[in-house]
Amino acid sequence: PAQPGISGSIDLPIDDNVVAASRKIADTPLYVSFASKRAEILAEVNEQRLLITSVGIVLLGVFFSIIGYLYHKRYETSNLLAQSIATEKSVERISSAKTEMIRTVAHELRTPLSSMLGFTELIEMTTEDPVLKDYAATAARGATHMSEIVNRMLDIAAIEAGRETTLIEPVAIR
């Protein structure tokens, strides 16, 4: 490219080891000349090539390091997601087993409680002994209370299993 104030150029190989160049400064009888040994010029060009190559290799190393890091993070994230899904399924199985156990235990308790309530009612109706009637009434209150607890456990188990839904609505206090 032409530089301002400089026009024309003359490249003169002086011999096989020296390269020279000369340019005339515009509108003047002056010339700017340059001469250098070919080996020095080639050494500088090779040094610049080596520098450019080194920078390219470093940039490629950085690029592949970033790719490796991103791949590792993707792999790590997919493992965490798989573990999370497995944990969620395990928690669901445990919750389902707990709900089933509560339901089974509650049903197993309900039968003897019903028998207790029936027999205490029968004792209260057929006996004339006030002490025995008092014992039967106390046993009936305990069985009734235990039956209410069992019914609440069954309600909770049904809600957790998704067989019943709760209804939330405003209620007048008065």
Give start-end ranges of low-pLDDT stretches. Answer: 1-6
Structural class, please? alpha+beta
Provide a count of the helices.
2
User: CA-to-CA gap between the ends?
Assistant: 97 Å
Radius of gyration: 49 Å
The biggest beta sheet reads:
3 strands, antiparallel
Using the alpha-carbon principal axes, give the shape: rod-shaped
Biggest sheet strand line-up: 1-2-3
Overall pLDDT score = 83
Number of β-strand runs: 3
Helix content: 55-70%
What is the H/E string? EEEHH
- How much of the polypeptide forms β-strand, as a percent range? 5-15%
Overview features:
rod-shaped, 2 helices, alpha+beta, 70% helix, disordered N terminus, 174 residues, 3-stranded antiparallel sheet
Question: How would you briefly describe this protein structure?
Answer:
The protein is an alpha+beta fold and 174 residues long.
